[in-house]
Amino acid sequence: MTTELLEATQTINVFIADPLSEDGIFPLRQETGLNLNLIVDTGLTPEELISKIADVHVLLVRSQTTVTREVIEAAKNLKLIGRAGVGVDNIDLTAATEHGIIVVNAPDGNTNSAAEHTIAMMTSLARHIPQAFNTLKNGKWDRKSYVGVELKNKTLGVVGFGRIGVEVAYRAKGSRMNVMAYDPFLSEERANELGVTKATVEEICQAADFITVHTPLLPETRNLLNKEKFDLMKDGVRVINCARGGIINEDDLYDAILSGKVAGAALDVFVEEPATDHKLLTLPQVIATPHLGASTVEAQESVAVDVSNDIIKFFKTGTVTNPVNMPSIPKEKLAEVEPFFALAEKLGKFLIQVTAGTVKELNISYAGEVANYDVRPLTANAIKGLLSTNHGTHVNDVNARYLAERVGIKINEHKTTTAKGFTNLVIVEVKTGEETHSVAGTLLNGLGARIVKVEGFVVDVKPEGNYLYIKNTDKPGAIGRVAMKLAESDINIATMQVGRDEVGGSAVMMLGVDNEVTAEEIAVVSTLENIDEVKSINL
Q1: For residues 106 and 307, is the Cβ–Cβ distance under 8 A?
Q2: What is the DSSP letter of 476?
Q3: Which of 188, 273, 405, 464 is catalytic?
Q4: For the segment 194-228, what is each residue's pLDDT rounded down to a tens digit?
Q5: 31 is catalytic
Q6: CATH code for the structural domain at 329-459
Q7: Which CATH architecture group holds 111-288?
Q8: pTM across the whole model
């Protein structure tokens, strides 16, 4: 990723709009190879910021300042926005991208802080430390009420095994705990390397004595631990959430504690914050902190240092380490490939929903005229679609390849100027240790993006909305039985595409439905004669 650099002698105005650690911005102050002019002006209203930003080249913020489209459009010389932290919800990424402004963040800066807080919460939960301290402060010496449990030889289930989850596992193993881990992209090889047991969420619920969650909050992870999961858990399980409010269903957790299923919970985050009057806080089995996971001197310094170093790197080389959005590229190059962006992303998103195993390899083939373009942005979009189900908005056009390679996915690109039957064809294939899946798409004049092949079967599907993807044996009545069973569940079929390799052989159905089909309804369809596999796809 490169961009047009300023002249080496030109003054670079760096506007620091939120309070930052002085040690964190020390790299900027000591830099001698660039002519940096640091302007610290915090606590501004949006209107005040807009009035002061016209000549700014770099805007550096934390979470207090909201970088709106209006701010970006007023910043006529802005080249880079730095977020000293992980989340970028306070920055209009679309507007930044449109204006060719790079946005960087510090995804690793609070990893250690969050992991340590998780372990502290787990230990406090096991030994009733906050409750015992409060009793002592109130003048009572009570040892019998606060008999705890040891961590040694207990099983910790880590749901979400990214940077923070891995660091939690390291520390838990230091306490001689057994660690089970779930992550959609965790391979057996990686699990063995880290000395943990790869497991499903259900397996963790059934076996773990302590469960900690470290996933992003996405539609797929919201209420991930709910009544159904609590019912699977051991009696006396303890639960920790130092990630995002909403991953654990708070009402179901409350009920599980009252019933005795859950012995205790340690919470740093809530669905709605501040949560000073939350009903969970009325339970003596619950300990809580006010979202302190990243609140350490070191973490605040580290995120500022990371962003400061990226600012320096950007103006010296035109590259950055932690990009969040798409970089500025020549408009004529962007115009060539931009129509394929949505198609590539939808192909990746389709594949991750039909793939059960851990993806190890991603192959993307470009055929026809598209092979003459710079297809790197298309590959990034395909990867983004593949990862977005589990990584949410954290994955984007720029960091997609980095995230994929970090979880061990090998990425290959192929080009050919021949696309049989099409002017352009994008073919995306994923491989796990046991299975291979592929999907192909094109752009049709007047119709836009279309999926034209699934697992080699010819179809014609608009990649939008909800679908049932069904593998079946090509026998009379198979389609009718599926339609009847869906009708019994009041599921309306909007569109239907079928494909087969030969009469009586393997076949597929792509059924466009008006609403997402539940797991229970999928299970019923799966039992029908000649039906081999049923998947719900949301595009």
Answers
A1: yes
A2: T
A3: 273
A4: 999 999 999 999 999 999 999 988 888 999 999 99
A5: no
A6: 3.30.1330.90
A7: 3-Layer(aba) Sandwich (3.40)
A8: 0.71
